[in-house]
Fold this sequence. Notes:
This protein is mainly α. The chain folds into 2 domains: about 5-80, Multidrug-efflux Transporter Regulator, Chain: A, Domain 2 (Orthogonal Bundle); about 90-140, no CATH class. The chain has 6 helices and 3 strands; from the N terminus they run βααββαααα. The chain has helices at about 5-15, 20-25, 45-60, 65-75, 80-115, 125-130; strands spanning about 5, 35, 40-45. It has a 3-stranded antiparallel beta sheet with strand order 1-3-2. Strand 2 and strand 3 form a beta hairpin. The N and C termini lie far apart (about 65 Å). The mean pLDDT is about 90.
Amino acid sequence: MADYLTAGKVAKEGGVNIQTVRYYERRRLLVPDRRTESGYRLYPPEAVRIIRFIKNAQDLGFTLTEIAKLLRLRVGQKAQCGTVRRQAEARLKIVHEKIAGLRAMERVLKRLVRTCAAKGTTTSCPILDSLEARGDLNEQ
């Protein structure tokens, strides 16, 4: 039993809270090896590595569904690295799309800020007027 970690210990060493460990367990990303007689979940030491894997993948924008696939590839003996690369390329494409969307938002916000003299009341605020206007802000 000394080789096993409680959920609390996994959480602490993995840098997450206990609710996160339980959530990952519900999502089948993390599975306890066994339970104590009193019902405490016991995890293998590699559970901490899995938690760190999940958190690092999330930091790169991978969803938990995608992370589950990556974890399965990690333990698959016959999985090819090219499969992982394709998933990373798909995630990169999404990141590029988000960046393009953020740049478009930036352009619109800059234009709105330029239109506002910051004088007068909000009844004639060009920013609020633009937000109330029909249609896409990008077209204004």
